[in-house]
Regulator of nonsense transcripts 1-like protein (Linum tenue), 887 residues
Amino acid sequence: MDSQQNNLYETASQPDTGTDAYTFLEFNTQGESEFDYPEFRSPVAWPTPSDSLAAAASSSSVRSAPAAASSSSSDHHHSDSQAASPVASSSVAKAAARGGHGVDGVVAGMGGLNFEETGDEDGYEFGKGDFTEHACRYCGVSNPACVVRCNVPSCRKWFCNSRGNTSGSHIVNHLVRAKHKEVCLHKDSPLGETILECYNCGCRNVFLLGFISAKTESVVVLLCREPCLNVNALKDMNWDLSQWCPLIDDRCFLQWLVKIPSEQEQLRARQISAQQINKIEELWKSNPDAALEDLEKPGVDDEPQPVALKYEDAYQYQNVFAPLIKLEADYDKMMKESQSKDNLTVRWDIGLNKKRVAYFVFPKEDNELRLVPGDELRLRYSGDAAHPAWQSVGHVIKLTAQEEVALELRASQGVPIDVNHGLSVDFVWKSTSFDRMQGAMKTFAVDETSVSGFIYHHLLGHEVENHMVRNAMPRRFGAPGLPELNASQVYAVKNVLQRPISLIQGPPGTGKTVTSAAIVYHMAKQGQGQVLVCAPSNVAVDQLAEKISATGLKVVRICAKSREAVSSPVEHLTLHYQVRHLDTSEKSELHKLQQLKDEQGELSSSDEKKYKALKRATEREISQSADVICCTCVGAGDPRLANFRFRQVLIDESTQSTEPECLIPLVLGAKQVILVGDHCQLGPVIMCKKAARAGLAQSLFERLVLLGVKPIRLQVQYRMHPALSEFPSNSFYEGTLQNGVTVNERQTTGIDFPWPVPNRPMFFYVQMGQEEISASGTSYLNRTEAANVEKIVTTFLRSGVIPSQIGVITPYEGQRAYIVNYMSRNGALRQQLYKEIEVASVDSFQGREKDYIILSCVRSNEHQVGLFCPVLLARVRISVNCLEITQ
Ligand SMILES: [Zn+2]
Ligand SMILES: [Zn+2]
Ligand SMILES: [Zn+2]
């Protein structure tokens, strides 16, 4: 199995509200007996997940039972040949006629064929021409009992329920990859032409649908997991809701619903690989009618040139990276611009700065979109009798606890504040970050002064003689305002100061930020000019800015203009704050204009001109007087820094940024570069799989390690109980991680929790619950595991742990949402307690601390063992590295 299949599903949790749009349509079998399944009348305890497999297996002896049910339940014995579609048999006949073999011969012969070459004398072409409309678009199986139609209007393609040699059935593969969620059974299938939908609410998302059989009658009812499974009114009916089972089990539709093609049918079918499926699905996005054959056409599916270890020169470097950035940008744009939503309910407010703020819930069907403060959205109203059409662009200033988006509008005029319903929102995609990466690569290539010669050759992987930086060394390597450094931290600071390029590897809890701040302190004292400090994320920049500021250095934190309204823990260090609060008399004119602008919303054009010029001058003055400038990597490309030069650059969390992103701060004149990170933790997030495959997901830090630059490793961790640091130390850090905390310092008293081994601060809780695909179709959940998470949380709370000490981590957004809902619905204690417990994804927990961590792994299935093992290991690697377990 190839590992790409995993890319289908989330690798790390991504936002997904789980509130997919439901269509409300009537279910067509209410009160009737169409869903009468004679074979289920047996007294077996039906249906639990394992039983359903058994039942499905036993039902194969009475294959057409559901069809029989609609007429009479006595006719159980349609023969297999009848069940097979006439089309499928006729293609066998044709093939047999052509080859002159019996069926066995055909099977053997076809198995070895590539179906591209079947354009033979009688014009038979597999997958084309006379091929049935309802044939599986992947493999060609066309037995009506085995295929379903994707019910998305723009798609309407048919797929079968066989796995072939992939991990999920073809229909499930399609639904997941295309992000489609509705299906319709074939008219000649046992159940007839039926759109699968929830009996109670009409929801058609097959990833949410499951079934239960009534207690007394032999009727099966389809019900959705959210919300209907939890509707109290339904609990009183004749159904045992605890027996609910999803319609898709182990990435395959249940067999009583959609049959799996017989082995013979599967052998006759086209053998399509997971990779081909990926490619054809990709192609369908731009050409919905494309056939598999089209993949062979030149230019359709060219993989970009992969990244290299070494490059001739910066032009070659640019030639490799520029197309990858373009791919990622195009993907990002397509994804974000497809996120428009209509019929929003909006409430209006006014911010402290007197700007209009709109609050609304922005349901995201696609869990790839993650809104962050600073994102730009366009809010629209199409108008009515009393209101003209209106639209305004604004910036997201926060996401509330109720998962509302707060959007600060740019223009306050004409806002239809008495309208609360029927508004629409679009994502406004901006190319800024991608443009800056492209710009940095160009500068790197054409501007000889962009970096020193040594850095230039080193980054390209050329052999260069190592040299030391001649700088006066401090006598002490610690810095004022920071904790005392340990030996490995001192070693790091000392070495870094003497080298033109260094890598610092900071495993969790080893004081990476303190060490970085100490390095910056000493560099700033060397008189080489201002030091530039960057990181890919705003959170990391803020943390570092705060620590550096604690040493007494003058720090200016430059935020993107779109984030100026976003609250920050280091607001006093931000440039926009300092401009506003610079209290000198010569600035009074700027202040006056600012005040006027705040009050009136805008200035006359001459005042505006004067205001802008004054503001720019003040910004420059403040920035120039700083010892250290802090901003994100992309922020280093801000026009406000265009004329600045930085000889010394430190990039924190550099292992989470792409190479071109790292280059943005470097091309401002770097002579001495320090990359801090940990390549054993999460890498950069690349949305476009093609670009990721080509190597865009590899950071510069990682490539330099491959080139032989040895990272200096911080070796003493202060976070975890020694028993917990043992595994990551041995598995990822060659056993070098030492403990700066003792067992006793990590012992809590008075907490009565039934640890299986009292002095081991961890245990594995194994359960047999099955994974289910979540509502988005691209994530997973595990209900049994969620129930057990609640039990553990409740036990902790009962024994005196407070909610803020507990963190629940899961790699799957589907599970995250389910646990939050489950705890607030079923938690044994006060609801508020559960609301205060943080349930989050692995990456959003990276770098943070909790006393107790519960990790919900979710995955559990029968089919993917071979494939799944490495995934599990990979997850453990990610998890252990970013879990900050102190208990
Ligand atoms: Zn579809
Ligand atoms: Zn198929
Ligand atoms: Zn429902």
